[in-house]
Each structure stands twice: as C-alpha cells, then as structure tokens.
Here is the input.
Amino acid sequence: MNELLAVIKTALKISDTSLDTEISRHISAALKELERVGIVIKDNSYSEPLIISAVELYTKWQYDYLGQSERFAKAFADLRNALSLTSAYTEVTDNGTE
Here is the structure.
C-alpha cells in the first residue's frame, strides 16, 4: 500500500508527508468503493494499472484537483463501472485468486 501512496502523492503533486494519513484514507475508500461493486482487490492489485488509475481518479475527485472534481468523479465512476463488468476484475478462482 505504501507504493500506491507514493504513486497517488505524485499524481496529486504532493511531496511532503503531512497529508499521508488523509491520502491513505482516500485510497482505502477508493478500494472499498471498487469492492462494493464486485471488483476483487488483492495484494497484487496495488500494481494493477487500471486499479491505480481508478484510485488516482478517486483521490483527484476528493481533492478537487485542478478544480475539476466533477470530471474526475465521472471518470472514476465510468472506470469503476467498466471494471465491474470485466471478469478479470470480478472473478475469484477456487483457490481464492484470479
């Protein structure tokens, strides 16, 4: 998760650590929102490009990045919905992994 925090901080152009706890909460919320619609989040999901993109869009929405929160909210919802319709992100095999 620390790697994902670093990626999101870079996307938000934040270099100091004063907001790490808050950003981490937003990351967790984004991942829970993805799970809510049936997307399976595993340990290796933190390096999956589309999951990273969804978390980035979510955090940019929460921070009203560049004054474009509506744009980021829509982009997040669209990506979340697309992923929820893709078996590669929603199916779990018998041993508990994709």
Observations:
- The mean pLDDT is 92.
- The two ends are 20 Å apart (CA to CA).
- The chain has five helices and no strands.
